User: Which sequence fits this backbone?
């Protein structure tokens, strides 16, 4: 008895002095371990489903609707908007939770993410296959409705069979989640937090290998966690009314070590796929949403929810299985909108350029991009809402620009089609050439004709045309037709034909005139005469286009126009001032529509599901497209060296197209071009492989280190000689004595060089960007490749990012360590990186997991006397005791391994804290 | 037979002459549900809709994706009165009744909750809508059909002016002012 009293006395002394910073506040976080990964490891992880995601919700659309509704009904807009937005946020989260629970309780079947899987129910397969080419899949709505109805009933197993041929593989199995843990803990298996601020709780997005400083920051954040996050039910609009971010963590996955989560690996993508499809349907159709939405139900139902809501992976794992196709590349390109630099660098971004190259360009342009170094500028935002707002603003504004291009483009082509004046354009252009020869060298008309011919030659010339392949994709393009279905009388294929007709006319007119008569040697073209797209695309200049002003000044002379809006006699009513204007507008507009088609999937939702990109992992698409391979880095370095050096040789000797065929065993690393060639790139199943191949090769040539598709020929009959327009100054074939190509740039024909190869040259790519390597077919070319090859090789082997490394950290253990030592000591860093706790007493350390797992709140202090451990948990002042027994001795680390043997004392006041 | 035809023609004339008094007014009720109130000129009209003689109040189901930046809605609010025009063909009240009875319709005017391109009831928007009516209707009401399965907006149908309902059309045919200048070629 006396001994026991002494023991308790000693314990109470030791517990009060054992941990240096035993802050009593509850810091327990129901959040998954942080997964720190370097580049290569992150690339690997992209192939696995994540268990943690952000939910980004834009409130602007619903807010605008509520504001107008309040105005209409004479209510207080501020009150209605605030009340409505809170309800909106709660409804979104409640519906996510509902679907999650239906999935894990097997009340709803999984909707398989890949139709290549086995065990796809037959009706589901049929619907998904038949709907892949449709604008809207009514059958999917019917299917989801049938499935959802069964989910609300008893005896589901039999009733599900009436809907489709489901088997046990179509439901989440027990083995994914730890049922025992679920039952014992009573804590939600889907943990949800409202994010107030991004910070050290997302440290894995800021850096790769965590150090003591990182852990200290994490610990301090946990001690002040209320500043960073709160429960999902806390959705007041004080933080930000325009948008909100939530963090979802799926808890209690079996084998709580991320790398061992084989079951989640097998089912995770199907889980997320199900969540995003069910959500999209249920938001508008599930009866459960009505009570969630209250009296805002009607408004909520009419929100374009797929444009307002995003699920975003929190880290390197994915929500959507990465595949190298246009859908996924477009989805991934969404991440650009989250960058702080988006507005500042918008003009340099492909999506904002006048002639886009497409989302694949970015990954080829910047293969070894940064990852996990705050790539989306979280730290620049004061609150999580600020960050989401930036993302939303950039997305919305870009969508607005594209929408304007789409609407103006479709309206222009509809008006032009209705006017039925293609022939008149030919007459106008012919007439303009006729009149131009008598005009002075300084006339606006002469400049306009020069610009007309340059622009069309660049775009549509049968040999040189840089845009021919790109624009021809519009023949089979569907997204424009879907977007304009309700108001455009013609399809995009018809408009493309109209453009082609006009382009053929212009090319013919330009080549049939005697150019030296029209533009004699005294003529000096003004770059400003070109349209903006040509100035930026070909001249790579930022000079202001004067084409609009030129047309306006001509119109002010006679106040007539070739094609005019009815009832609008002002200049704003001019559709085309004359044939030249009409033709150039046609080209500009078809390029705009091409741009819209290229990025439409990034900006609009065409599928009946919520978008779920991996925006924090740019290697998801690089790995999927095998541009970057996390496993075969060493091979990749050698591959680059070999191909570059071989290319260097080919540049000198090869006549014809310089495309090489290289592939290395084990064969994972290969060029994008090779994948295209092998048919491994699913760019779009709608197009013939040959045509896509041509377009992609044309587009990606320079990005692959191949300057362009070069054809060398000494034949005179190619007759390229008459072109004087920018970028095509190859007069050489007509003049044998000067049959030399020297193109410094499109706008700046250089001096001839007699040491270069003789011949006529057609280069179907942008002369400006590849000028350095195309300038001469001389030994310089091989030097360029040789140097680059060496540079890449040296850069590659010294790059430590490309060998997979990862670290895992349990936030609650970081907090416990900080409490125990006052701050994170350096000696604890290794353990914390392994996801372990680091406590002064080794026996306590070995049972920390088990003890913390028993309580809902955080362990705030802990110590051991003999075989007894005493501790305190937040929310209870009294000491809790456990008996332990020696488990074994870890000889390697010289640690005492204990395990709990019995509970000695749980004071009554602490029992409520037990799970 | 002739008598029968005359009877039909007479009844159509009578019906049409009264159709201007058939009036639809949009509203959002206290439960924040959208509805329209129909004032009937003929008792049969309202009886057909709601079993009342003078007026009916009918729920107008919200349209899918109408709160957002839907491209078709942007087109509607931008091009109202320009590409979207009243072609002066009168619409019979019976056609309006049929549409209302189907339940697949959306009404919009310059006070629409779905307007995301301009400020609420802005002057420019009012002008655009007013240009649809030749009389001085303050708030012309445009009817758009909904897809009867997914409730997305489908087709622009007609406009309600004070003096009746008129068909709307998307007209891209514009003036070609120098069309006559080509005999030279």
Assistant:
């Amino acid at each position: 008895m006396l001994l026991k009293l002494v023991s308790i006395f000693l314990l109470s002394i030791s517990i009060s002095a054992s941990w240096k910073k035993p802050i009593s506040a509850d810091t327990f976080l129901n959040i998954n371990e942080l997964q720190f990964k370097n580049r290569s490891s992150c690339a690997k992880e992209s192939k696995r489903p994540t268990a943690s995601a952000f939910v980004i919700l834009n409130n602007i659309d619903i807010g605008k609707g509520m504001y107008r509704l309040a105005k209409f009904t004479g209510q207080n807009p501020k009150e209605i908007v605030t009340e409505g937005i809170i309800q909106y946020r709660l409804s979104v989260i409640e519906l996510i939770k509902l679907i999650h629970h239906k999935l894990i309780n097997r009340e709803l079947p999984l909707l398989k993410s890949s139709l290549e899987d086995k065990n796809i129910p037959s009706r589901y397969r049929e619907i998904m296959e038949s709907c892949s080419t449709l604008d809207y899949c009514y059958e999917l709505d019917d299917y989801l409705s049938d499935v959802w109805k069964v989910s609300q009933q008893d005896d589901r197993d039999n009733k599900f069979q009436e809907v489709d041929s489901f088997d046990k593989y179509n439901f989440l199995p027990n083995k994914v989640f730890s049922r025992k843990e679920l039952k014992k803990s009573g804590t939600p298996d889907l943990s949800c937090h409202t994010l107030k601020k991004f910070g050290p709780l997302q440290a894995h997005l800021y850096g790769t290998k965590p150090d003591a400083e990182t852990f200290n920051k994490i610990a301090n954040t946990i001690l002040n966690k209320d500043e960073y996050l709160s429960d999902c039910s806390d959705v007041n609009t004080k933080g930000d009314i325009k948008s909100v971010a939530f963090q979802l963590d799926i808890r209690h996955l079996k084998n709580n070590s991320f790398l061992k989560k084989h079951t989640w690996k097998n089912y995770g993508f199907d889980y997320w796929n199900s969540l995003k499809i069910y959500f999209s349907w249920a938001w508008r159709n599930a009866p459960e949403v009505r009570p969630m939405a209250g009296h805002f139900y009607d408004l909520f139902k009419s929100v374009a929810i797929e444009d307002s809501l995003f699920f975003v992976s929190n880290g390197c794992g994915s929500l959507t299985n990465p595949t190298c196709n246009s859908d996924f590349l477009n989805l991934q390109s969404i991440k650009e909108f989250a960058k702080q630099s988006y507005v500042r660098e918008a003009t340099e971004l492909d999506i904002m350029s006048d002639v886009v190259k497409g989302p694949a360009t970015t990954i080829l342009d910047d293969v070894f991009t940064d990852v996990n170094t705050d790539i989306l500028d979280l730290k620049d935002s004061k609150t999580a809402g600020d960050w989401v707002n930036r993302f939303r603003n950039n997305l919305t504004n870009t969508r607005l620009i594209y929408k304007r291009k789409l609407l103006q483009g479709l309206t222009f082509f509809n008006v032009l089609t209705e006017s039925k004046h293609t022939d008149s354009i030919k007459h106008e252009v012919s007439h303009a050439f006729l009149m131009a020869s008598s005009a002075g060298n300084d006339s606006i008309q002469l400049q306009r004709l020069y610009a007309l011919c340059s622009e069309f030659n660049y775009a549509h010339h049968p040999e040189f045309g840089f845009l021919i392949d790109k624009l021809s994709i519009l023949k089979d393009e569907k997204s424009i037709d879907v977007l304009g279905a309700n108001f455009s009388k013609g399809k995009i294929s018809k408009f493309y034909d109209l453009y082609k007709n006009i382009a053929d006319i212009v090319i013919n007119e330009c080549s049939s005139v005697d150019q030296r008569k029209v533009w004699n040697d005294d003529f000096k073209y003004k770059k400003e005469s070109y349209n903006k797209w040509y100035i930026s695309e070909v001249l790579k200049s930022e000079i202001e286009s004067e084409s609009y002003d030129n047309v306006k000044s001509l119109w002010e002379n006679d106040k007539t126009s070739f094609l005019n809006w009815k009832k609008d006699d002002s200049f704003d009513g001019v559709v085309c001032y004359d044939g030249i204007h009409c033709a150039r507008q046609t080209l500009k507009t078809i390029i705009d529509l091409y741009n819209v088609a290229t990025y439409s999937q990034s900006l609009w939702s065409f599928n009946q599901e919520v978008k779920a990109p991996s925006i924090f992992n740019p290697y998801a698409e690089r790995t999927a497209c095998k541009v970057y391979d996390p496993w075969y880095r060493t091979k990749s370095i050698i591959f680059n060296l070999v191909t570059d050096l071989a290319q260097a040789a080919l540049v000198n000797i090869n006549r014809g197209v310089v495309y090489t065929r290289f592939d290395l065993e084990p064969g994972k690393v290969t060029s994008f071009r090779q994948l295209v060639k092998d048919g491994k790139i699913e760019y779009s199943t709608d197009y013939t492989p040959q045509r896509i191949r041509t377009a992609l090769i044309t587009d990606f040539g320079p990005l692959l280190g191949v300057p362009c598709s070069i054809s060398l020929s000494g034949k005179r009959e190619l007759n390229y000689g008459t072109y004087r327009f920018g970028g095509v100054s190859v007069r050489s074939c007509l003049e044998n004595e000067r049959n030399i190509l020297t193109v410094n740039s499109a706008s700046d024909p250089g001096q001839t060089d007699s040491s270069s190869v003789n011949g006529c040259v057609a280069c179907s790519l942008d002369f400006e960007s590849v000028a350095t390597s195309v300038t001469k077919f001389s030994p310089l070319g091989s030097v360029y490749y040789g140097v680059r090859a060496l540079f890449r090789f040296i850069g590659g082997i010294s790059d430590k990012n490309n060998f997979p490394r990862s670290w895992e950290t349990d936030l609650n253990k970081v907090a416990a360590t900080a409490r125990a030592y006052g701050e994170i000591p350096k000696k604890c860093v290794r353990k914390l990186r392994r996801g372990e706790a680091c406590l002064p007493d080794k026996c306590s350390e070995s049972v920390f997991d088990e003890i913390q797992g028993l309580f809902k709140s955080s362990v705030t202090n802990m110590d051991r006397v003999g075989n007894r451990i005493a501790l305190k948990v937040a929310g209870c002042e009294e000491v809790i005791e456990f008996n332990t027994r020696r488990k074994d001795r870890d000889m390697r680390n010289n640690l005492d391994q204990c395990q709990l043997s019995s509970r000695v004392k749980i004071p009554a006041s602490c029992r409520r804290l037990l799970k | 037979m002739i008598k029968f035809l005359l009877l039909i023609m007479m009844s159509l004339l009578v019906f049409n002459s009264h159709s201007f008094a058939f009036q639809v007014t949009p509203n959002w009720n206290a439960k924040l549900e959208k509805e329209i109130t129909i004032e009937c000129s003929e008792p049969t009209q309202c009886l057909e809709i709601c079993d009342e003689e003078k007026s009916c109040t009918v729920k107008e189901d919200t349209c899918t994706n109408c709160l957002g930046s839907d491209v078709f809605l942007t087109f509607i609010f931008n091009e109202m009165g320009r590409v979207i025009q009243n072609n002066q063909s009168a619409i019979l009240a019976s056609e309006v009744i049929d549409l209302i009875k189907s339940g697949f319709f959306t009404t919009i005017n310059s006070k629409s909750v779905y307007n995301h391109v301009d400020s609420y009831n802005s002057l420019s928007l009012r002008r655009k809508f007013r240009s649809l009516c030749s009389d001085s209707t303050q708030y012309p009401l445009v009817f758009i059909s909904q897809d009867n399965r997914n409730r997305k907006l489908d087709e622009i149908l007609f406009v309600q002016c004070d003096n009746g309902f008129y068909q709307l059309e998307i007209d891209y045919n514009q003036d070609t002012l120098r069309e006559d200048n080509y005999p030279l070629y």
